Amino acid sequence: MGGSCVLRxxxxxxRLGGRRVLDGVDLAIDRGAAVVIRGANGAGxxxxxxxxxxxxxxxxxxxxxxxxxxxxxxxxxRRALGYVPEGADPPEHLTVDELLALAAALRRVPRPDxxxxxxxxxxxxxxKRIERLSLGERRRACLAAALAGEPSLLVMDExxxxxxxGGVDTLVALLRERLAAGCAVLIASHDGALADAIGARTVTLxxxxxx
Length: 211
Fold this sequence. Notes:
The longest helix is centred in the last third of the chain and has 16 residues, at 165-180. This protein is α/β, with parallel strands linked by helices. The protein has a domain at 5-87 and 149-210: Rossmann fold (3-Layer(aba) Sandwich). Helix 3 (96-107) packs parallel to helix 5. Helices cover 32% and strands 28% of the residues. The chain has a 6-stranded mixed beta sheet with strand order 6-7-8-3-9-10, sandwiched between helices. It has a 4-stranded antiparallel beta sheet with strand order 2-1-4-5.
């Protein structure tokens, strides 16, 4: 869709366990731009990313991806979104091939192509079940699933966790390529080197707000 803003978050609020985790969060990311969110443990970074990814719903506020509401146009918004959760914990009974096929089907996009699978080192893991993978291998498989279909927004929670040096280098290269192609990137991470490597703007989440 037209316009430079890929992600727009307005007045986002969420309570969990009686505590207001998010309190009127506003955030916008343009095409080709990356934002890294930092904050103390429990500040609500993962909650914010899960709401943007449509995993949980906010109590109040609006999230739009390419102008589509994640609550009003779930199919359109999710097709434009690639999400990597912090735990890299997809259903363990699935094989890597089944995970990639499921992710593509849910978002209604093509499966990751052979080149992407090769670069992420998952081309030889297709028949292995998730439960038999190392954390790094799970992370690579989740990255492949998120990057399928060249989404206009990538949302990643601590994406470098569990990756070796080569894996981090590949992640950085892929993110730079997607940014150059006009993708927007939202990451929660304590990895300052990753933020610097992709030229990300850094914001801090504290007391339920970003600043």
